[in-house]
Amino acid sequence: MIPGGGQPNMQQLLQQAQKMQQDLARAQEELAHMEVDGQAGGGLVTATVTGAGELRALKIDPKAVDPEDTETLADLVVAAVQAANENAHNLQQQKLGPLTQGLGGGGIPGLPF
């Protein structure tokens, strides 16, 4: 309900919605170009993902490579990617949170988090 009992200005509401949509699209584009890292094994494995969650790089320290124990290396890779994705999620919250407050619902369309 509108204070004073008047009807909402539909043109104004439409303009606000369009501006919010443009701001959100701009923030999503920025996130696609930002990168965050996640590490595991004390830095033996580092994963780099974009703010949108795209895996860009994976660095493995030679000390982490043991031909007799590839399972541990695989676990470190998974942990590093998960840590990087968590950092990307946090970046999304910082960047998009203020733009999406009050929209209700869950996640942000087009993003994996």
Q: Keywords for this structure?
A:
single chain, 113 residues, alpha+beta, three-stranded antiparallel β-sheet, 2 helices, 49% helix
Task: Please characterize this protein's 3D structure.
This protein is an alpha+beta fold. It has two helices and three strands. The chain has helices at residues 10-33, 70-100; strands at residues 35-40, 45-50, 55-60. The protein has a three-stranded antiparallel sheet. A hairpin with a 4-residue loop joins strand 1 (35-40) and strand 2. Helix 1 runs antiparallel to helix 2 (70-100). The chain is rod-shaped. The relative contact order is 0.17. The mean pLDDT is 83.
How is the secondary structure organized here?
Elements: H1 10-33, E1 35-40, E2 45-50, E3 55-60, H2 70-100
Antiparallel strand pairs: 1-2, 2-3
Helix pairs in contact: 1-2
**Roughly what is the average pLDDT, rounded to an integer?**
83
Number of helical stretches of at least 4 residues: 2
Write down the overall geometry: rod-shaped
**For the largest beta sheet, what order do the strands appear in spatially?**
1-2-3
Distance between the termini: 33 Å
Order of helices and strands: HEEEH
User: Considering DSSP H and I runs of 4 or more, what fraction of the residues is helical?
Assistant: 40-55%
Rg, nearest Å:
21 Å
List unreliable stretches of 5+ residues.
none
Q: What is the number of strand segments? A: 3
Structural class: alpha+beta
Strand portion: 15-25%
Largest sheet: 3 strands, antiparallel
